[in-house]
Task: structure prediction
Amino acid sequence: MTVILGFNAFHADSAACLVVDGKPLSAAAEERLGERHKRDSAFPANAIRRLLADPDLRLRDVTDVAMARDPRASYAAKMTYVALRPVKAAGAVFEHMRRNRQTKSTLEQLADVCDENRASATFKTVGVDAACPADNCG
Result:
C-alpha cells in the first residue's frame, strides 16, 4: 500500500491531503480545524492528525511525504534578484534561511505531531514546486 501525505505550510492557507494507492482520499485546511485563523500559515498539525485518523492510519503507514516547498525552485532568478538588489533582498534571504531550517525541523518533528516514535516514521520526503505548469503536474 502506498500512502502519500502532502502538506502546504509556512505561507497562507496551510493544508494537508492524503493519497492512498494513487487515489485522493481526503484533504483539509488547517484554518477549518485549528484556531480558525483565515489564511493560516501555521504547520497543519490538526489537518494531518485528522487525515490520518479518518482511515485509521498512523504516520508509520505513510510511505511518502510531499511538502509544497522546493527551495531550489527558480534559484537562478532568486540569486539574480539578490545580486541586483542586495539591501532590498536581505530580508528575503534571511526568511529563506529561516524557512529552510524550519522545514528540516518540521520533517524531523512530524512524528511528534502524530504522537509516534520517530524511528517508526520511515517515509521518503519530496519537495514539490508549487509553481509547476498545469500540463506537467500529472
